[in-house]
Amino acid sequence: MSEDEIQYETHPAPKTRKKGFAFAHLALIISLIAPLTLLAAMLSTSVGYLSYDLGFNQIALDYVPKIATTAMIICALSLLISIFMAPRTYGPWALSSVIISGGLLAGYYAYETRLKAYPPIHDVSTNWERTVTFSTKLVEARGPDANPIEDDPFVPNTVSYEWRGQSISAVNAQTCPNAISIQGKPKNAEAVAQILKDEGYVVFGRSEWRVEATYEDPFWGLKSDVVVRIEPDKTDIRSVSREEVADLGGNCRRVLTLLSRIRST
């Protein structure tokens, strides 16, 4: 066979890998660091492995937003590169990373908005003229680092300019006006205890004139203690958070829910 009759196989030149590919995938991985850190902090705090101050105040409110902001910058740059390099191939990866980081930052913005909308309190009661008190055992169970139980608490001067220096009773009257005593014949302590259990509380102690219970947040494991005081002519409720400085209206909602349930008994 002559040289002219020999057929040589031709192979296509290898495709060059575009630079946007590696960066788009890297950006997606980076975008997952912040939410995974937040999830780890939440789980560790809820089971008691991390303290509230470290898990929530430092990691969740300080470190994670900074990580998410850095990731957002990287992801936005990745999206720009992908749009110009190969939008169909790499664009979805880069866009996903932007959505993840942006969504997390939007969540923090919503949290900050709610934080400003609610007063910086963690104590709600239906009666401040005759303070609803907790038993010594429950106060001890709260621990030395918990928010103190006071007869006439005030908003610290170091927090919100709008609310600082005001009494909690005055703040309650403005922001939770329906938290008022249940007038009339005394309620049954056993029935009250069952209502608390139905609402997800763990009953700490009970007597004919008082029922105490603890509510635990299902996400962060944050606890709030509730006492229902039963008197011959009226029934009062008080709810106080252990760790939270600002409860975002949580104690008010809990008190109002219990008032509604107890009134219907």
Span of the ends, CA to CA: 105 Å
Number of domains: 2
Class from helix and strand fractions? alpha+beta
According to DSSP, the number of beta strands is 6
The ordered H/E elements are HHHHEHHEHEEEEH
Q: Which value, in Å, is the CA radius of gyration? A: 28 Å
* % residues in beta strands: 5-15%
Return the CATH class of the largest domain: Alpha Beta
* Average pLDDT over all residues: 90
Quick one: biggest sheet? 6 strands, antiparallel
Low-confidence stretches: none
Can you lay out the helices and strands and say which pair or pack?
Layout: H1 19-31, H2 33-46, H3 52-85, H4 87-117, E1 123-125, H5 136-142, H6 168-175, E2 182-183, H7 189-198, E3 202-206, E4 210-216, E5 223-230, E6 234-241, H8 250-263
Antiparallel strand pairs: 1-6, 2-6, 3-4, 4-5, 5-6
Descriptive account of the structure:
This protein is an alpha+beta fold and 265 residues long. The protein has two domains: 19-117; 123-263, TATA-Binding Protein (2-Layer Sandwich). Helices cover 49% and strands 12% of the residues. The chain is built from eight helices and six strands. The chain has helices spanning 19-31, 33-46, 52-85, 87-117, 136-142, 168-175, 189-198, 250-263; strands spanning 123-125, 182-183, 202-206, 210-216, 223-230, 234-241. Strands 1, 2, 3, 4, 5 and 6 form a six-stranded antiparallel beta sheet that branches. The protein is elongated. The protein starts with 18 loop residues before the first helix and ends with a helix. The mean pLDDT is 90.
